[in-house]
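Table 4 source record.
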Amino acid sequence: MRRHVLIIDNNHVSPCKHCMAFRPRKFTRATVVRPTEEELPANLDTYTHIILTGGSPASSMDDAVVYQRIQKLVRKAYRAGVPMLGICLGHELIITSLLSLQDFKRHDQEEIGWVEIQRHGPSRLFEGLPSRFVSFANHSGHIKRLPHGFRVIGSSKRCSIEAYEHETKPVFGMQFHPEKTPRQTLRTVWRRVKQDMPDSFFIHPYSARRLYRARVKYTLFRNFYAQKRT
């Protein structure tokens, strides 16, 4: 069966410029929907996978109407067993949709730059990656706890829930951005520097050429797209 990926673009100011990076090149159709501008699909039967992107600079959780739309979709996809992956803000939206906004907390120190992810136990999403790997992060908050049935599969020094997955359902979240290219990460860093962020928020911000590994992105997305409805 040909894949049909639903990509929820959570970028408020302008459409995601690299959403197609989430899509495998072969045998995959992708539909991108922006919840700030249009209704989300009511029927998920035609979609094989769902990805919730990160969002910048505003958070979908700050817009009550948009958040309610996303909540409804996440809960429906969760019940239907549709493979679902949240990235950064998307990672947060999945959990807060299943629990509450109280389970999200702002960081005292943001993570902006290249962070080391420590794996925790076996993982369908992280299969094939080493016990420690590096990826790019850019977030100001984090999830405080997980619903029943979920478990932590990755953490960093500043973020105790850097990644999670459900024990039986194909539902996953990553606080970091494996989809971003080195050039895109540098653009993000420059934008954040212009916002006068404290130096302590940055972690190896200009180390893309030294730390970027395309294998991390390809492995994570290959593993996600290998998941089927439950």
